[in-house]
């Protein structure tokens, strides 16, 4: 993480750590220390401590003991609940995007997929994972649904580390269903766009469940 603006320091740290969680730059069960974050960000420990307390209250970090704060590992039940919600909300975003998208929006989605494939092909998995998240959020933006986007951001705060850890470990492609979503948008077919999005989310289910089990086995 790079140096951040010193103004509104606690808010800036909270936003930066949240973004790193969402993009999977922090992995499930990773230990987070106040001193480590402060050194990484070039700040004092007090604003970092405040930001960490907010993240703990939000449930996106967990505290195992006084000195042990970690990125949580989702349980199977938590994961299944979140993907069920994502299927509904992101399916809605894709459906609405198919109704409203213009040529500029289609070009944006195609450019994202091309960048994702290039990153994957060259082994730059952190960038590929970032492009994957951007694609999902772009559909909500194209759909003109800021409230839905805010809800998705909170879900991806929980899911980001899990998704990133799985794809980086397994080197699984992420864009097959994205092509179907774009095709549905070009055809102005909301139902097909929603179905392709749900298929995209569900396609990684078994792999992610196995990935979650690896943490359970290590306990």
From TrEMBL:
One term of GO molecular function: DNA binding
Pfam families: FCD, GntR
Residue ranges of domain GntR C-terminal in the record: 81-203
Gene3D superfamilies per the UniProt record, alphabetical: GntR ligand-binding domain-like, Winged helix-like DNA-binding domain superfamily/Winged helix DNA-binding domain
InterPro entries per UniProt: GntR_C, TF_FadR/GntR_C, Tscrpt_reg_HTH_GntR, WH-like_DNA-bd_sf, WH_DNA-bd_sf
Superkingdom of the source species: Bacteria
The entry's keywords: DNA-binding, Transcription, Transcription regulation
Listed name of the protein: DNA-binding GntR family transcriptional regulator
Organism: Sulfitobacter undariae
């Amino acid at each position: 993480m790079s140096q951040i603006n010193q103004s509104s320091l606690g808010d800036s740290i909270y936003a930066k750590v949240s973004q790193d969680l969402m993009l999977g730059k922090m992995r499930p069960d990773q230990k987070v220390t106040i001193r480590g974050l402060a050194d990484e960000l070039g700040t004092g420990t007090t604003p970092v401590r405040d930001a960490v307390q907010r993240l703990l209250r939000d449930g996106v970090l967990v505290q195992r003991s006084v000195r042990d704060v970690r990125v949580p590992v989702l349980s199977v039940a938590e994961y299944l609940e979140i993907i069920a919600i994502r299927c509904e909300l992101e399916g809605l975003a894709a459906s609405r995007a198919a109704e409203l998208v213009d040529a500029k929006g289609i070009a944006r989605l195609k450019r994202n997929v091309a960048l994702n494939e290039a990153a994957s092909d060259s082994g730059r998995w952190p960038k590929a994972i970032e492009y994957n998240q951007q694609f999902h959020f772009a559909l909500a933006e194209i759909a003109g649904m800021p409230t839905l986007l805010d809800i998705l951001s909170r879900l991806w705060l929980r899911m980001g580390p899990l998704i990133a850890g799985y794809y980086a470990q397994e080197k699984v492609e992420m864009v097959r269903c994205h092509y179907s979503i774009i095709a549905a948008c070009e055809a102005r077919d909301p139902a097909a766009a929603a179905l392709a999005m749900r298929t995209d989310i569900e396609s990684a289910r078994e792999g992610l469940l196995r990935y979650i089990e690896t943490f359970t086995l290590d306990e």
